[in-house]
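Hey,

Quick one before I head out. I ran the complex with iron/sulfur cluster overnight. Inputs first:
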Amino acid sequence: MNEAQCVLPWMHLFVDSFGYFYNCCFGIAEQAYSYDESGQIIKASEPGAILRHWNSKRMVELRKGMIAGEKVSACSGCWRVEETGSASFRATANSEYPMDETTLSMTDPAPIFRYIDLRFGNLCNLACRMCAPYSSRKLSPEFAQLYGAKSVEPFQNMNWFESPHFWDELHAHRHQIEKIHLVGGEPLIIKECWEFLRRLSEDDCAKNITLSYNTNLSHIPPQAKEIWPRFKGVVLLVSMDGVGALNDFIRYPLKWEDFERNLKFIEENFEDLNVVNCHVQPTIQAYNIHHIVEICEYLAGFQKIKRYPLVNLLFDPAYLTPHVLPHQYREEISKKISDYTDEVELGRNDLDPWANLSLVRSLRGIITYINSEDRPELFREFQRVNDLFDVNRGQKILEFIPEFLPIYGK
Ligand code: SF4
């Protein structure tokens, strides 16, 4: 296996929210979707789509390029990560899923789907402020007000997962599957996905499969308790952007009491639900940089759920990054986070050393991120979008984030 090669095109299935197939999630940015002989995009809802993608010209050429040691364009995302000195998705996949050289030398191998990653359109029950109609159709009316009706047209009918063909074809490969990663919209409310998991759970293969979810945890369906324990394990990456009212403000119309009840349900039923890892993942943005410390302190109160956050830094939309806020405000926030980081580094909490180290790294990364750019010219857009959300949702930013009083000017 050469340096440019990655196991994923030989064992992975990735479907994006539109129902298009790619080499992996990085292929989206490179528009490396699979297409058929007539140049038409292969859609997951169509009969025979999985095998047509696997044997498509795009995939065969990609494997051919990798075997020849080329840096194929569909994989630019990984190369960019490696240029920064960080571990790429390729490096992780290659070590997690070793494969034999004979298979890796074939451009048209028999399909093997060990790792499945499915993005379920834009069916979500929330309309979070930093999200977009691509991920939640509930945001379409507000985006139509902000950017015109045409801007949201591409996000209608993102329902590929309703096709029974897809699930039947995937089911035929069930004995090879080791991991299924599920992302929305909101994957816990997709009934077709639950039906598929139930079918798998009635088969011996389920005990070999780890399920992982990116979820808003607004709703835990009752079948989770019955179906999850039949799998090898369940990993939950839970979105949470603040503690209490701030979370309600950002993750509208979720109510903190409902979310917290679900989080505690996971904590109290960890083994019964067969959860092997649950990590809370805040998206760091202009709205919550003032409250990073509160999020860390809140999570430290758990025992089974990871006691420190797995941070996700927001870059898009740019008007919601902390970079739009005044320099001085960001300096004050940085100091608050830095003081807390020093405390953590000195071990003035009861996290284990590994968790402490991870938390310190994340917090230092947040400080660097907050101060990495100045985009004051976007503050006007921040206000325009925020004010529209406030009116539509009956919320007032200063009631949720009083710290904005000096900068919001109202
Ligand atoms: S090299 Fe990177 S971008 Fe290409 S398939 Fe592997 S993980 Fe995806």
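DSSP finds 18 helices and nine strands in the chain.

Talk tomorrow,
K.
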